[in-house]
Amino acid sequence: MKRVVLSIVTTVTGLVALFQFKSQPVVGSVLAGGAAGRGSGTVTAAASSGHRSGRHSSPTRASSALGGAVSTPYGPVQVRVTASGGRISSVTAVQLPSAAPYSQRVAAYAVPVLRREVMQADSARVSVVSGATYTSEGYLQSVQSALDQLQL
Amino acid sequence: MPRAPVRGRHTLATMGTVFSVELGDAVPESVLHEIWDRLRWVDQTFSPYHADSAISRLAAGRLRVEDCDPALGEVLDRCAEWQRRTGGRFSAMATGRLDPSGLVKGWAIEYADELLRAAGSTRHFICGGGDVRVTGGPWPVGIADPLRPGGILTAVALTDAALATSGVAERGDHVRNPLTGGAPRRLASVSVIAPDMTEADVWATALLADDVPAAESTAECPLPVLSVAHDGQRSRTDSWPLHGRDTADNP
After folding, report:
1. pTM across the whole model
2. CB contact under 8 A, A126 and B20
3. Complex ipTM, two decimals?
């Protein structure tokens, strides 16, 4: 696994350097699932910024790059990284393993976003909250407080 | 001709909660209206709180399934199927009366997602009362802290996936274990990640009703699960996406 990890990290690190990304690049895992989910990957805390129509960053033409396909014990993994306004705006899995157990495959669709790093990344936002309270008022309060927290 | 394309965030209050749709790609405004119409129809048809809803009339024996919109039969069939798949932990009869609410919201959201994808959208999410379905991504999704109103427990970035959180703060009074009739006492919330909103919604409801921390659950749930107990203890399945520097106590 280590070689796999390094390979993907290298791809992203290159982009990070290119776009002068400010935060630590390694946050989550595109492999995810089981042991692979523990810090082996490359999705950044700023992965959210591209979806919020640039409230913080000035609109800049987006660039994207396809990483190399990397073999893992679960199958090939390949990601596309998009950067905009000097930040990584998204990391999309182009290929994910299909031979892994079901729960690991599902987990591969979700990567952790470290709360601390989400809060530090000044362009990061939690787009939406799961488990927000059931009434509309509570929902709005919860979303608002989430956004407030993340802007710290 | 469809009306002008729309994008960005749109909301609708229905089913006793708020639905929001975030459109990363522009879609015809007619698609958004179709989604809202569908959600209102689902509310009118399936709400156990409306005496005149089809589900209330069905429960009261004033209507036969054969005379209903085929969607009702489909929902009831799915409830039966999920009752089997959750080992009886999910049931449309959990509260003692016919109430498929635990499945309907996720099912309606999944339908809305299909409408958007059929309209060509590759980047959007739909959120209804804490259930979140994303297409494209990664979208950063926070999970509300059930013990700290307004606070966030953790966040995950989802791509083409669904995340449901069932919590007693939201609708605990309505969650009953179909096998025992009891309400959850130990767990404050359960979050489930799935490829499909219905699946996430049903399992979150079933596992909250089961009232067993995620890591100790004997339910044959094949999905990543995170639970939070009233004493603050967090528990997760091995498959729950976890950062290397996080600990089990702080997922």
Report:
1. 0.67
2. no
3. 0.74
